[in-house]
Amino acid sequence: MDLAPSPLALPFATLPQIAGVTARVARAHYKDWDRCDLTYVEFAPGTAVAGVFTQSACASTEVELGREQVKQGVARALIVNAGNSNAFTGHRGRTAVEQIAAQVSAHLGCAPEAVFVSSTGVIGVPLPMDKAKAGVAAVLDAEPADWRDAALAIGTTDTFCKGATATAMIGDTKVQLNGIIKGSGMIAPDMATMLGYIFTDAAIAPSLLQQMLEDANKRTFSCITVDGDTSTSDTVLAFATGAAGNRPLLEMDDAGAYAFAAALHDVCRQLAQLVVRDGEGAAKFIEIRVTGAASDDSARNIALAIANSPLVKTAIAGGDANWGRVVMAVGKAGEPADRDKLSIGFGGIWAARDGQPVADYDEAPVAEHLAGDEIDIDVDLGIGDGRATVWTCDLTHGYIDINADYRS
Amino acid sequence: MDLAPSPLALPFATLPQIAGVTARVARAHYKDWDRCDLTYVEFAPGTAVAGVFTQSACASTEVELGREQVKQGVARALIVNAGNSNAFTGHRGRTAVEQIAAQVSAHLGCAPEAVFVSSTGVIGVPLPMDKAKAGVAAVLDAEPADWRDAALAIGTTDTFCKGATATAMIGDTKVQLNGIIKGSGMIAPDMATMLGYIFTDAAIAPSLLQQMLEDANKRTFSCITVDGDTSTSDTVLAFATGAAGNRPLLEMDDAGAYAFAAALHDVCRQLAQLVVRDGEGAAKFIEIRVTGAASDDSARNIALAIANSPLVKTAIAGGDANWGRVVMAVGKAGEPADRDKLSIGFGGIWAARDGQPVADYDEAPVAEHLAGDEIDIDVDLGIGDGRATVWTCDLTHGYIDINADYRS
Fold this sequence. Notes:
Two copies of one chain form a homodimer. By secondary structure, chain A is α+β, with helices and mostly antiparallel strands.
């Protein structure tokens, strides 16, 4: 199905070249569509890698293998298949991934473990090996592609292509970070979400990159939700070629490590928010800020209970300042809360304070805020210092349209 | 908003009289509607009571008081306000409930603690005391109503009125159980759901009634979900007048106790399923049967993860045998699962067995099953003996229509 671009779409960011990274795209015809659906990214020898993956108990072979591969910390190539997730396909699924890795490693003369494979699309249909083989052969021969081509080729139901960029100074060396991501449904937190890839020319030890990626993930990809549904294939990988020539970062105490971590966080946050902006059927981008909770984790759980509540999401879709539904969601989160200390606001205006409606509450400016497409919900628990921010979108007829008909 | 009856509606059951129980209804005009919205049920002296309530951390005053009252085990009256939940209204909310209880207890000459009050409707608007007072005065004077009138008067967004009945033999005495319930949105498990009331003429000790109600609740009301959203006011109360004259049931070893527990379970299951049949926007009734799980609790959590998945619910709405989304939901449930032992079927036909698609899978009979409005999903984990059955409905445009516009 061809979908109109999300009303919340942003233009594709201008992503510079990253030394040591070359992308190529090709048509593997995984589905009956006229577009590139196989992406190949080649990395210079010595490239470090880190990754975070879905917590699903039914994870795909790609995720299982990827978890093992990142422990070795080195990468030479990434293959992304779009249109077929190859998940829940038994031994045939594993054979397909191993065959692709073998084909690429033979071409590069590297270990197959240095070839990372991701697949996204329909679950339960074995990846057609003939198409994969011909597609890989074609992509290895293809001309280098630009970042936008790669971001387009990894997408499935995405309505716009998504990239982000940032820089950091490590000593006197400026390093560059680029990221691309795909995803718009089956998006829920507690994992790395969907397929995201971050590329940098910084020199950094794999273990430190892994630590920074996990930290960033916790406050970005794990803080977004579209529908509360967790994919079997969610993956975020970060690749660092070292071509910038900075003094390699080995631990957080090294000069420039915090600057790099901040830039990595920045790229992850941009990418995570772009996924929400392409949430299936989304018409409004919602930021939920929870303060005064028992702990940061408690605040995040409460924020996610609000973000995943169909009643809150439909109220926002209808432009309804229905703070009673926010109370309901706080109540069901299973976290410490005191009804009589709870405050709720929209767009910076409190509707309820300390467990009851604000006496002179004027709904007019709140209604105006809710008529827009960037919505803020503030919740203060009044019982502690815990805080968290979560991003989601509204629940509209568009979500039903997309998911009642699409075999994804 | 006036909603058309759910396509899954059933006719109101024929409920006999219960000795010791008299219902009356009146117009309190809690909303701008022309219908009875205040229900009063009077019980003979000596009536036992048991109750289960929402687990919400933001529960209403009615729920807080009700939890305390059931510990005393006796009831003389029930008041149900429809159109205003009186939840999250601070001290004014508590004053309103206390005033109603005082008014009724003065009329009956009983302790105010023997008067149970429930309220359902919009959250965060104090119950208008003048309307409540006039309404209670009117209802105390009203003619006795039949069960259907009472079932209608407790409803809010319900599209049909819901009742259930069963009998049991205790020794030589036949006892009768009737139940009425309201609810169609903000329905999620892990609590007693919405407002449900069960009436019986059996003689039974409050503590045993409470134990039986909790057991039944766990396998009925706690096994349904419409939208995963938990109300602040969910309540199920059971009242036993003892007028049937059976030898009073004091413990499970007493003759007839299991027969009565079975009848109570039967009424609870009927009522719970009726709520699902009136799920907001529901077009299909879905039974999800999970077997082979690590434990019964694990099976229930997995069944609920499937039942609450918007992607599964929209797939069923679209008549799509999308078992990949069921795999996704099993994976995200946070329970033990082995991808390669997992089997999934629809309407009694396995689509996937032991972690991969069935080789000669014929989708035609499955598609035919999914075109109907009573859908069965079978999931076998293949790792243990745990089992659970959960009921839900599909997610359709109707849910968005109702909730994007209704200030509930």
